[in-house]
Amino acid sequence: MQIRLDPWPVDTLDGQLTLKPFAGLVYDAETPRWAAVAQKPVPESLKRVLTIDGKPRMEARLLVDDDGKLSVAGFGAYVVGAVDLCPHGTRQAELLNVEAKRILAYSDEAEGRMPISRFSPRNPHTGALEYQPHSFAGSQLEGPKSAVQRLMLAGEQTLAAQLASALPLDETDVNALADTLVLQDGPVRIGTAGSAVVGCVKTLHTDYLGADRIGLLSELKPGERTPILRFAVGDNGLTQAQHREQRFTWYVRLSEAPFYQHPLAGVMRLEMHAPEDTDFVPRAVQDIANLSGSLLCRLASQPHKDARAPQNLIPTAALEQAMGRAMGSLDLVTRRIRSHLVRELGVVA
Prior knowledge:
Blueprint: E1 17-21, E2 26-28, E3 48-66, E4 69-85, E5 94-96, E6 100-107, E7 117-119, E8 129-136, H1 143-163, E9 180-185, E10 197-201, E11 204-207, H2 215-219, E12 229-233, E13 245-253, E14 267-274, H3 283-299, H4 314-327, H5 330-344
């Protein structure tokens, strides 16, 4: 028996590795030969890489009393932004669209629509807070939090679709590689099909490989990848005609795993949307998979800089910090909320 360390800190939501078996079917898309694929250089034709991420936050839970009818609500905020960088290092990286949006999430069972809530500060340098009303279905306690999360995910999808190049689905076009590639933190979102968007899944919670293939992940060298596979989102063994959405996926090693960590430490799973045709991998997807090892090894973080290294990429960590600054101090925001409610209720503080 050997005990190995999961490298992710215990205060994160989940560990980096859990590996619950995938319930559906996974198909060989690139080749039936299950072996490491060597990394290839990032081509000069790729001019722009953007990392996209979002950050949600609940700022206060509310109870709405409308003439004796009670319902739950909440003040929340989210930020969706991007880091724009050159994959060849010829220009400085730039933050894009890092701006907080604040939401008053309320149950659709409440009577009438909630008004916009504007909190004017006593100190003019701290800025006004404006919460836009947004209803959610039902009256569950976690409804406001889920509403903010859904708005953030929709914002990520919209931004990714706006920034990424269109993705040709031709099998042989040698010029198919897009000039702008988007790295989406987490799985790709529904609605970004046909764009050069790659989902970067940091946590290995689902085993798409099975016991006979997963051993290859521990053998990969930094920059190497697995062959490309195909699976269906929500697949539970139904026929392919019944699947809701197809995706390509492959694994890349970003760094060697220290001997005291589990052997899959340093491995990231990538995914892209797949067309319904299962006979080939589009040349553009294969080109992106080929360059992914070289690109991600450049962007991988180090343990002394980030506890979620190497999967939490350097630009993603910088974006997380910028998004936190955009939302402001939670303590100060909740203090503003309390002061606002005191004034609204006509009570002298």
